[in-house]
Amino acid sequence: MYGSLKGKDYISTQDWSKEELELALEKAAELKFMFKNGIPHRFLPDKTIFLLFFDKSTRTRNSFEAGITQLGGHAHFIEASTSQIAHGESPKDTGIILSSYGHGIAIRHDLVPGEGNAYMREIARWADKPVINMQCDVDHPCQTLADLMTIRERFGKNLRGLKIAVSWAYAPSYAKPLSVPQGLIMLMTRFGLDVTLAHPPEFKLMDSVMEIARKNAQEAGVKFEVVDDMDAAFENADIVYPKSWGIESLFHKPEEALAVAKKYQDWICDQRRMKLARPEAIYMHCLPADRGNEVTDEVIDGPQSVVYQEAENRLHTCKAIMALTM
Ligand code: CP
Predict the structure, then answer these.
(1) Which domains does the chain have, with CATH numbers?
(2) Whose Cα sits closest to atom 4 in ligand 1?
(3) Hey, which of 237, 240, 301, 312 has its CA 20 to 30 A from 98?
(4) What digits encode the pLDDT tens for the residues 148-157?
């Protein structure tokens, strides 16, 4: 089975079967154990991955760079803005050439709805090495796999009957991509969780993604509901995942999206809201979080928060994806 994933792109969790995702989670757990116990795990000796960024990053860049080093390989960090991509070099040429120099290409291209996912798939069409999505406009599959790993570490493998609240939250810093909540509603509906999505009316997710989430929920026999009330989403939730995102039609006018968001400054995860969830509920956030806006310090630094475990699991899951596909 491991061999069968060699060369496979990881652009959306939706592109992988449940069995393949299970394998990635198993591999991530094995790699976490080895890392924590100082056991060498150079499964990708002398291999090179190209990390191509159209946007900023802390966790993703560093988990991939540290991860490939620990696997015995090497990463090249490429900013689109300082490469020939900025002069218009095509994804075809970029994909063919980078894949001829190394063993994998990972891409972050998340800020323009309609562009990032299409760009990655075009690179993947021409590259003869695996392409890994480090966050696009549609999905953030490295993040959501780490999230699923974190949820299972807390609640076990059988998540049936548990509720996750994926909620919009207010943030003034910038119009954040839609891909994390979208990735969550696509993936968590496949793995047994009842999913409640909450957002103000203007902050809808992409229609195509909503359709996939509904279909996934139906096939898995779980609930998928949408509400416009953060409190309602939090009620009796086992997992709360409140975070900000922008307005699909306004990513080219971010100041307008931020002005709309200002109407909903009370969409914050605070202790009052945490008390609406179940007593053993966990608080999750992909980070970076707008402290004091998306969430209070009391919650994110409190006993229900698993954000650092979640961020750490980015390392183990991205290593699993690289080890399996490259
Ligand atoms: N969660 C996440 O993707 O973090 P970075 O933007 O820092 O990579």
Answers:
(1) 2-140+314-325 (3.40.50.1370), 143-310 (3.40.50.1370)
(2) 59
(3) 312
(4) 999 999 999 9
